[in-house]
Design goal:
The chain is an alpha+beta fold. The chain contains 17 helices and 19 strands. Helix 4 packs antiparallel against helix 6, helix 6 packs across helix 9 and helix 12 crosses helix 15. The longest helix is centred in the middle third of the chain and has 24 residues. The protein is globular and about 65 Å long.
């Protein structure tokens, strides 16, 4: 059961003692020395509301230390952006607002693929607000919670991207000062984006923050932040070290009953060796993480570029899945050599080239007919191949297993028309793509368009230790809009058959508008319709091939 933060309304696991967003204790405590965070405005913006005569509210994305964040459409440019309302407690402090205004002059200059763009600080109806780039995806904190911990290549890749974004910010003299896994967004393409430079301070703007004020999140703050001392870009490097530690171990280096107790551990305690928590961590990465977490700034990596280079070298040394390149066998085992006269070949070759060029020109001039959209089939679904993101080809067979079982389960509810694999393969033949084994989202959307299917289900499989995590996304086949996302996890491959398929089928059904009461009445249980052994299903697939 989640616990709602009394200050920022963020949802937190019941095992958490203080808010992961704003560090407010989730239970009363007298031992608080961190900057007091701020309450969410009582008047929330509802869907369809026009704010500041320009921004149409689409949905509330969440709430943090500065205020509530909404996804809105900027009606002047017809583009979705994020809008953050600044809480009244902050808004009433003119010095604070002026500080943010000065910082934005620098932070909005940061233009990098791994940094969310900041746009402007404005005021409407007496409420200051910040506009910024909207990045659809999932924050890293949530991703780690679902996975338990990340595999080493994925963790290194994310850290490297964050490091590259930091390097650009540091080059412009901007320190984030609140870097944490909640502030790293993984977008739809899997790229990492640093969010919320809202409390970052330009190194060139002196005296904007009063001495002795601690700003940051205790679990991720550097020792110098914990002591309210002057900080620089090396504090961000320390925070990135904490994020790396969290990604590869599934744990934070320091925990405690209060924000202040955690902050003091960063100042004086030695973190547990990450390799003790996860023996799969390479020694080079283990050393790198501990170097980021050095108490003295001078002992850490001195520049984000330096850390990025180390991560790059480490990434190159990690084992990667080899790509199989199929080569045509020669007609005979011997090399056949034929000698031609150059002049005899030249004239025919030129004639053939002229014919080909003419044909290409003519074909381009002929207007192409668009494939007609089929009539929409009510409550129709297509489930395509799932991506194996475990990094181990031994689990490739699960790409088809998961899709197959979801199709079977959804069909058995009686509420949906589900495109079978046989039907999809028929369409592949019609499209001249019968040799394709893995149906990706592009082909999936095309099949849906031809068949009149309403939604497309895509997904992926991840693995952290013995934990298998299956993610699904239900997308509107016409607009590609996200209708529903869900995930399920369990120990071992067998959990996919035992619990995950049923869990995901329920989530997909709810996303399609089927009531929970009706879903529960169907008593989804995939094991009733197929084998109870994932190993047996694996051999069944081999036999079918």
């Amino acid at each position: 059961m989640a616990i709602k933060c009394p200050k920022c309304d963020s949802e937190n696991p019941n095992s958490q003692k203080f808010c992961g967003e704003c560090a407010t204790p989730l239970q009363p405590s007298k031992d608080i020395g961190i900057t007091k965070t701020l309450e969410t405005p009582k008047e929330e913006l509802t869907r369809g509301t026009i704010f500041a005569d320009r921004y149409e509210i689409i949905e509330k994305l969440g709430a943090g230390g500065m205020g509530a964040v909404y996804r809105v459409e900027d009606t002047k440019i017809g583009q979705d952006i994020a809008l953050k309302l600044i809480k009244p407690e902050i808004a009433s402090d003119k010095k604070t607002i002026e500080r943010f205004r000065n910082e934005l002059k620098t932070t909005r200059m940061i233009s990098h693929r791994n940094v969310c763009r900041m746009f402007d600080l404005s005021d409407a109806e007496g409420t200051p607000f910040i506009t910024m780039e909207y990045v659809p995806g999932e924050d890293l904190k949530s991703f780690i919670r679902r996975s338990g911990r990340l595999d080493i290549p994925k963790a290194v890749s994310i850290a490297k991207q964050v490091c590259e974004g930091l390097a650009e910010a540091h080059r412009l003299g901007v320190v984030h000062r609140d870097l944490k896994s909640n502030n790293v967004m993984i977008d739809k393409e899997g790229n990492s984006r640093i969010m919320d430079f809202g409390i970052a301070r330009s190194l060139r703007a002196k005296g904007l923050t009063g001495e002795g004020i601690i700003i940051g999140t205790p679990e991720y703050m550097s020792p110098e932040q914990a002591e309210a001392k002057e900080i620089d870009h090396r504090s961000d490097i320390y925070s990135l070290g904490v994020i790396l530690y969290e990604m590869v171990t599934g744990q934070l280096p320091f925990e405690g009953d209060t924000p202040l107790s955690v902050a003091m551990k960063h100042k004086g305690d030695i973190p547990k060796n990450p390799k003790e928590l996860n023996p799969q961590i390479p020694e080079d990465l283990n050393v790198l993480i501990l170097k980021c977490l050095e108490k003295e700034k001078e002992s850490r990596f001195q520049l984000a570029e330096e850390l990025s280079a180390e991560l790059d070298n480490l990434e190159k040394g990690l084992p990667t899945t080899e790509k199989v390149v199929l080569k045509r066998k020669p007609l005979t085992s011997r090399e056949i050599t034929v000698t031609f006269g150059l002049k005899k070949l030249l004239i025919p070759a030129l004639v053939i080239i002229a014919i080909v060029v003419s044909a290409v020109v003519i074909l381009r001039l002929i207007p192409r007919k668009e494939v007609a959209l089929a009539t929409k089939i009510e409550n129709s679904i297509a489930v395509i191949s799932f991506k194996n993101q475990t990094g181990d080809k031994a689990y490739d067979y699960l790409k088809e297993v998961i899709s197959d079982l979801l199709i079977t389960n959804l069909e058995n509810t009686g509420y949906f028309y589900v495109a079978t694999w046989e039907r999809m393969r028929d369409f592949l033949k019609q499209m001249g793509k019968e040799d394709i084994k893995f149906i990706d989202s592009d082909i999936g959307f095309e099949i849906c368009r031809r068949e009149g299917i309403e939604v497309l289900v895509i997904g992926s499989l991840n693995k952290a230790g013995d934990m298998f995590v299956t993610d699904v996304k239900v997308l509107d086949a016409e607009t590609k809009r996200l209708v529903k996302s869900a995930s399920s996890k369990g120990i071992g491959e067998q959990s996919i058959l035992e619990t995950q398929i049923d869990d995901l089928s329920r989530e997909i059904s709810q996303g399609m508008g089927i009531s929970l009461q009706k879903i529960e009445a169907t008593k989804l249980n995939i094991s009733e319709f197929t084998t109870t052994s994932i190993e047996a299903y694996k051999y069944f697939l081999k036999g079918r091939e």
